[in-house]
Amino acid sequence: MRHAITAAILAGFLAAQPAAAADKTAAPQSSQLTPADAGFEVFKQSFVDALFDQFPDWGLEVGQYRGAARLAIPDPASDRAFAQKWLAQLARQPQVKLSGANRIDRAMIDNFLRRKIWEADSFRAGEWDASDWNVGEGISLLLTRDYAPLDARLMAVSERLAKVPDYYAAARRSLRRPTLEHTRLAIRQSRGVLELLHASIEEALAASSLPAARCDDIRARAVLARQAVAAWIADLQSRLPLLEREARSFRIGSALYAQKFAFEIQTDMTPKQLYSEAQVEKERLLAHMDALTRELWPKYFPNQASPAARSERIGKLIDVLSENHVAASDFVPEVKRQIPRLEQWVRDHDLVALDPDKPLQVRETPAHKRGVAGASIDAPGPDDPAPTPRYNGEPQDAQPPATQESTLREYNYWMLQILNIHEAVPGHYVQLIYANRSPSLIKSLLANGAMIEGWAVYAERMMLESGWGDQAPEMWLIYSKWALRVVCNTILDYSVHNLGMTEAQAMRLLREDAFQQEAEAREKWHRAQVSQVQLASYYSGFAAIRALREEVKRREGAAFVLKRFNERFLSYGNAPVKYIRSAMLSTDLSAR
Length: 592
Fold this sequence. Notes:
The chain is mainly alpha-helical. Helix content is 65%, strand content 2%. It has helices at 7-16, 35-54, 56-61, 76-90, 100-123, 136-144, 150-174, 180-207, 212-245, 253-265, 271-300, 310-321, 331-348, 401-410, 413-423, 428-436, 441-445, 449-465, 473-498, 503-513, 518-530, 537-556, 562-570, 577-585, and strands at 361-364, 375-378, 390-393. Strands 1-3-2 form a three-stranded mixed β-sheet, with helices on one face. The chain starts with 6 loop residues before the first helix and ends in a 7-residue tail after the last helix.
């Protein structure tokens, strides 16, 4: 996901955070610290410092550039030794004597370190997931983030380029029994890396003031780096014929899935319990969609009786509504047009405070990142206050006509609004800005995916509840289809990796039960093949956040204020929802 800073820098960061969100998990002033908490603060500072030394690319992602010039070659043995060393030091920090805030931080650090050992010893993705090997993101960040003058950033790029041949030599040694699906993804993304290492570097060199000789040196290193990437692609392509006949399965199986689920989701539920709950929610959503369909049927089919089968009548109405969509060439521009409207709505309805100093930039997804999700957010980390958050959207006008139409029908007039709420306002973009302001750097850095995805799904529902979409039944129907997608993500992910769900079964679930367009269903099947557990994070997080809100509303009664709840929740950074719940319900919120 994301991965040093000196103790002085960390202390300055913590001291500089605004008090607006008033997170009671914040560390007290040094004069108020107990001996245990004082010692743990020192421990955390040392841990974060070492963390970015071990994972310099993670440092880049969160805005720490001390290791910008270092391209680290993945080394499971080194990661294991790092985790074991810090687990031993963590054991000397007794949980019982720490404040509530630091107990959460301690639990998150413990989970992170144990996960690193598990990844090195049991999961071993570098041996079978070829897409794990990719130098593109670090170089892209150095070229696009204005944290330093361009000339300095290009020199850091140059140092990284020099290590690219060694990086891919290690990749070829490590990749032992790859899956076909991850190999194909790696080929696609590596072609994007080739583009980055040529066009993007040339563009940066043309804009720089480096001496001609220095530019020539960088170009020479870029040529060798491209040769290494091209050789990597050729090696992967040479494996395809054998992989198409005999390859490791992309399914990780029940044991690994349960372990990965525990590390990533960090909930008290088991995967099977979440799967069962999702099945119940799926039926509830379908019943609601049927009621909306019956209400809307006379409007769209005034002289036609509705089909007897529930799925047929819902699907037929959704098909008609899906015809209302933008042109392929207008997809990304329409995203840009909607963001200011969403921001104004959030302000007018007092849902959550926005940060005008962090405007969101919408751009086309860089080529080296395409092929996994149609939209995503690149948000600067807590140690990087300057760069602009970016909303990545995959352009549609380069797709074949049939794929274009299928995708645009999926992201129709109503669905595109929900997508932008989820990814941007008040979804991921807003939540990650708040996370960067959390007084606890640990809560921001060791991010819990279920909390992050859960907030974005919660934000969709909150916006419609506030009146976005004018309470139109069409909006609620398409939103319900989106919510059904969230639920089916969990069902799909669990079924694929635990129950051996086939492609045909997955397509029936997505196309017939969830009413997804062909392109969307194919993309989701692909995601289920090349990722694990992440698809389950949406529903898990949403259900937990919504349950917490309802509990707080029950406790506060008439004194409940939605904005106060939202900002209070967001003030805990990216901590797992179960820890946020425990902290929020242990305080007297109505007194705030």
